[in-house]
Amino acid sequence: MPLFVLETVIGALTGTILIHMEIIPASCYVNVIMISMAVYDINYFIRLLC
């Protein structure tokens, strides 16, 4: 669970940086956070399968 929160914080920081650099629009901020959380889940389940 703490790693899931860490991935959320990393996604929030990444989204903020990308918005300030004008790489993505502000409306995509939540999407960046959700993608960073999903990446953690995918890596976790892949490690369980191997």
Strands, count: 0
Shape: elongated
Number of DSSP helices?
2
- Average pLDDT confidence is 89
In angstroms, what separates the terminal alpha carbons? 21 Å
Main structural class: mainly alpha
Order of helices and strands: HH
The proportion of strand residues reads under 5%
Helical residue percent?
A: over 70%
Radius of gyration: 12 Å
Biggest beta-sheet profile: none
Low-confidence segments, given as residue ranges, are none
3D architecture notes:
The chain is mostly helical and 50 residues long. The chain has helices spanning 2-20, 29-49. It is built from two helices and no strands. It is elongated. The model has no long low-confidence stretch (mean pLDDT 89).
Observed structural traits:
50 residues, mainly alpha, 2 helices, 80% helix
Topology:
Layout: H1 2-20, H2 29-49
Brief synopsis:
By secondary structure, the chain is mainly alpha-helical. The chain is built from two helices and no strands.
